[in-house]
Design a protein that fits this description.
The chain has 481 residues and is of the alpha/beta class. It has helices spanning 22-42, 56-72, 94-113, 129-138, 154-163, 209-213, 221-233, 259-267, 287-294, 312-317, 324-337, 356-369, 396-419; strands at residues 47-52, 75-76, 84-89, 118-123, 144-146, 168-170, 191-195, 197-198, 217-218, 238-242, 274-278, 302-304, 342-349, 373-378, 425-433, 440-445, 450-454, 463-471, 475-480. The chain has a six-stranded parallel β-sheet, sandwiched between helices. A five-stranded mixed barrel has the order 15-16-17-19-18. Strands 7-10-11 form a three-stranded parallel β-sheet, with helices on both faces. α1 packs across α2, α8 runs parallel beside α9 (287-294) and α12 runs parallel beside α13 (396-419). The chain binds S-adenosyl-L-homocysteine, iron/sulfur cluster (SF4) and FE3-S4 cluster.
């Protein structure tokens, strides 16, 4: 574990060790020397900035990158002043890719002016060969490019770059390796994401994630529990268990274990107060998990249950492996077992072949389930996925119209669902001083809603009972109860 490793004791003049994570600590120690020298030359610290562009999984990866950068001796800085800028990219929709090229374009003149500056690119987008080709051709000022499978090698890649003048590109197609006990630098002292599995085997027909994140692999339960115990000892009271499909956790382990069983073990950890997880695939949500949620005082009463479409026909083409009716039954079962559960979802409009009738089915699901909130997306054609080759790509005008109608419906219902809590007293974990008003703090309720109330930064990380006085659509203004 990082805290127990003394970087000064590592002999950087010997050969690097072959085994992990010792090898990466060796390279951290090595880079640290180089960064120290550069910083002395410049008479100031060197700054690094890791920009996270993707989902929670990517955000967690960014914390691992920051952990390595801190070990190497970089101070954290803003993007516009940083000596090392790393974009941790996403490629789930086309606009995610366009953003990266846009920002890279802006970096180019700065990089030309500052010889010590480094630019790194990693994450899901780098797993696409055409992207790397384009970067090699048109963005030659990038220094380091790596993918999702070898992120643990970050220190080694930096060392290679610092010791040579050449661009370092290292992308793996897949991996079955999970390297434990590397450093990580948390964004919040009191809450943390925890990977419980990597990759995805579902191959929803629109989705690029299985191609860029590889096959599903679960971490050993002991490694997860050990990590959470350490986090708790370090002040964390809320964890978010992360996986593309947490409900299939443990199926590939040598000694299989269900997600509900894992939750029960995590629940036993003293000092841990809140457990969240995402994402749940409806097809794998078991009765055992519903029971575990109903019987737990730590698992938050919030479930993100992406429906994607309300039309059974479209769901079939999406390869989601449930019908509209099965999804609605699942929601009924959840609400019966956990009456105050908050439900959120993801919805795609304009999937190939989607008719007005199909779309009305989606609206019907939204009206029946009454989501507390929903992320709505316009279908984006991802090269290499089965849906990209499907007939009946929906015309843009129709998609926009459906998207707007869906958004209105989702927002109206979400505001109504939020208002239901007005006047109640609930426990909030204070996350920060409010962005809009320095005399207020922002707390998160168990159901994931935010509340702003009068307080100062001494409350950050504390659990406070708050009366939810006024509903403002998606959040509350409250007062200490
Ligand atoms: N593993 C999660 C989702 C990860 S991607 C799950 O199965 O629910 C997050 C969301 O992005 C998906 O739920 C989906 O709604 C959306 N998404 C994925 N691919 C997309 C595409 N090609 N076009 C539009 N939205 C997409
Ligand atoms: Fe993509 Fe489906 Fe896997 Fe989620 S479950 S990451 S939507 S393939
Ligand atoms: Fe996440 Fe985007 Fe990758 S959604 S898994 S960062 S493609």
């Amino acid at each position: 574990m990082y805290n127990e490793i003394d970087l000064d004791k590592i002999d950087i003049n010997s050969e690097p060790p072959a085994e992990e994570p010792a090898r990466q600590y060796y390279f951290i120690a090595k880079c640290r020397e180089i960064v120290k020298r550069k910083s002395e030359e410049l008479g100031r610290p060197l700054y690094a900035c890791t920009v996270n562009m993707g989902c929670q999984m990517n955000a967690r990866d960014s914390e691992k990158l920051r952990g390595v950068l801190k070990g190497i001796g970089y101070a954290e800085g803003e993007e516009d002043e940083a000596d090392f800028v790393i974009y941790n990219t996403c490629t789930v929709r086309e606009n995610a890719n366009s953003r990266v090229y846009g920002r890279l374009g802006q970096l180019k003149p700065r990089k030309a002016r500052s010889p010590q500056m480094l630019v790194g690119l990693c994450g899901c987008m780098m797993q696409e060969p055409e992207v790397v080709e384009k970067l090699k051709k048109s963005y030659r000022f990038v220094d380091i490019i790596f993918g999702t499978h070898n992120i643990y090698k970050f220190a080694e890649l930096i060392a290679t770059r610092l010791e040579s003048e050449r661009i370092v590109i290292d992308i793996w197609k897949d991996t079955d390796q999970i390297v434990e006990d590397l450093p990580s630098e948390r964004k919040y002292p009191f809450k943390s994401g925890v990977n419980i599995m990597f990759g995805c085997n579902n191959f929803c027909s629109y989705c690029i994630v299985p191609y860029v994140r590889g096959r599903e692999r679960s971490r050993e339960p002991e490694a997860i529990l050990r990590e959470i115990e350490r986090l708790v000892a370090d002040g964390v009271t809320e964890v978010m268990l992360l996986g593309q499909n947490v409900n299939s956790y443990g199926k590939t382990l040598d000694v299989p274990m269900s997600f509900a069983e894992l939750l029960k073990e995590i629940e036993k950890i003293e000092g841990l107060r809140r457990i969240r997880f995402m994402t749940s695939h409806p097809k794998d949500l078991s009765d055992e998990l519903i029971e575990a949620m109903a019987g737990s005082s730590k698992i938050c009463k919030h479930l993100h249950l992406p429906v994607q479409s309300g039309s059974t026909e479209i769901l079939k083409k999406m390869n989601r492996r449930y019908t509209k009716e099965q999804y609605l039954e699942l929601v009924d079962k959840l609400r019966a077992a956990v009456p105050d559960i908050s439900l959120t979802t993801d919805i795609i409009v304009g999937f190939p072949g989607e008719t007005e009738e199909d779309f009305l089915e989606t609206l019907d699901v939204v009206r029946r389930v009454r989501y507390d909130s929903a992320f709505t997306f316009i279908y984006s054609r991802r090269t290499g996925t089965p849906a990209a080759a499907m007939e009946g790509q929906v015309e843009e005008e129709a998609v926009k119209d459906r998207f707007n109608r869906l958004l209105t419906e989702v927002q109206t219902i979400a505001a109504e669902m939020c208002a239901v809590h007005t006047g109640t007293v609930q426990e909030a974990l204070v996350e920060s001083v409010s962005d809009h008003d320095a005399s207020m703090v922002t707390g998160r309720l168990g159901n994931n809603l935010l509340v702003h109330f009068v307080g100062d930064k001494s409350l950050v990380g504390e659990y406070v009972k708050v009366r939810l006085d006024v509903c403002r659509g998606f959040y509350f203004i409250g007062s200490k109860a």
